[in-house]
Amino acid sequence: MKLPSFNHLACRFASGVLSVTLLRPEVNNAMNLAMVEELIQMLTVANDAQEVRAIVFSGAGNNFCAGGDIKDMAQAQKHYQAGQQDAYYHFNRLFGQLLTLTEQSPKVIIALVDGYALGGGFGLVCVCDYVIATQKAHFALPETTLGLPPAQIAPFVVKRLGLTATRELALFAGTLEGENAHAIGLVNTLVDDADQGKQVLEYKLKQLMRCAPEATAITKALLLNKEGLPQEALLDLAATQFSGQFTAARAEALEGTQAFMEKRPPRWAQSAQEVEQEPV
Fold first, then answer.
1. What does the pLDDT average to over 119-147?
2. Domain range holding 130?
3. Predicted structure pTM score
4. For 96-130, how does the pLDDT look when each residue is reduced to its tens digit (9 = 90+)?
5. What is the count of structural domains for the chain?
6. Strands 54-59, 108-113: parallel, antiparallel or unpaired by DSSP?
7. Over the stretch 55-110, which tens digit does the pLDDT of each residue have?
8. Residue 251 sits in the same domain as residue 145
9. Residue 117's closest CA among 16, 30, 52, 224?
10. Is residue 276 in some structural domain?
């Protein structure tokens, strides 16, 4: 897989997994406009790449992401004062586009969180399919203490945590430590440290590689129901997609059922390693 070069992201692709590290450790990986643009560019390429099965987000240094870069927002203020009145809007709305693109990605997206995941970092975690966090992980929505609403983040947090939990976090600039984040479902697996987190990540990726890529993408889209289809229409679509898995060009269902009967791995899992007991 060929990706463009980035200044604020470190990307590595191997065995179907695109690992993406937020690369601004000097500011705790806070997102400036350039990083958001690079993330959108990266996801646009990766979402269309058949060879990518999963995308894994992590942060360089000791933190995942400290949210939006306040200094970068100050630059937006200068543009605003110069008469470019959409500078704040552009910065904020672009981040919402990033969250939507991440949430609706056909790939399985995993976050490996250590240290701070604040504001925008919190929002990014909320749109991941699976979250591994250490005991030191610290989640918060501090925007209102800065005189700002968590504008693009709030709808995604509500979808992830529900309205009651989000109200407390957003209206009181609340915080969640690792254990509490795990208890309310923000975090799927809580680990002692980053090394154990990598072990769990390896285990989950082995599990994923047993699953057919197109069936996984279809399943994720059905779960999200981004078109907001009523139940009967969604079930009609699901039946059509179910049937299509037997008749499509690559016919994953034919290969999967035949492999089951022949007691062999299907073609997409032939290079997958045996899944052992989860290391937590």
1. 97
2. 9-208
3. 0.91
4. 999 999 999 999 999 999 999 999 999 999 999 99
5. 2
6. parallel
7. 999 999 999 999 988 887 767 666 555 556 677 888 889 999 999 999 999 999 99
8. no
9. 30
10. no
Same domain, 173 and 64: yes
Residue 271 lies in a domain: no
CATH number at residue 166: 3.90.226.10
Q: Name the domain boundary from 161, 191, 208.
A: 208
The CA radius of gyration of the chain, in Å to the nearest whole number, is 20
Measured CA to CA, the distance from residue 197 to residue 191 in angstroms comes to 6
How far is residue 91's CA from residue 96's CA, in Å, rounded to a whole number? 9
Beta carbons of 63 and 122 less than 8 angstroms apart? no
Q: What is the pLDDT of residue 271?
A: 66
Backbone torsion region of residue 185, taken as left when φ is above 0, otherwise alpha when ψ lies between -120 and 50, otherwise beta: left
Residue 278 in this model has a pLDDT that exceeds 70: no
pLDDT for 3 equals 85
- For the cut 60, the answer to whether the pLDDT of residue 240 exceeds it is yes
| Residue 236 and residue 153 in one domain | no
Are 102 and 133 in a shared domain? yes
Distance CA 115, CA 194 (A): 10
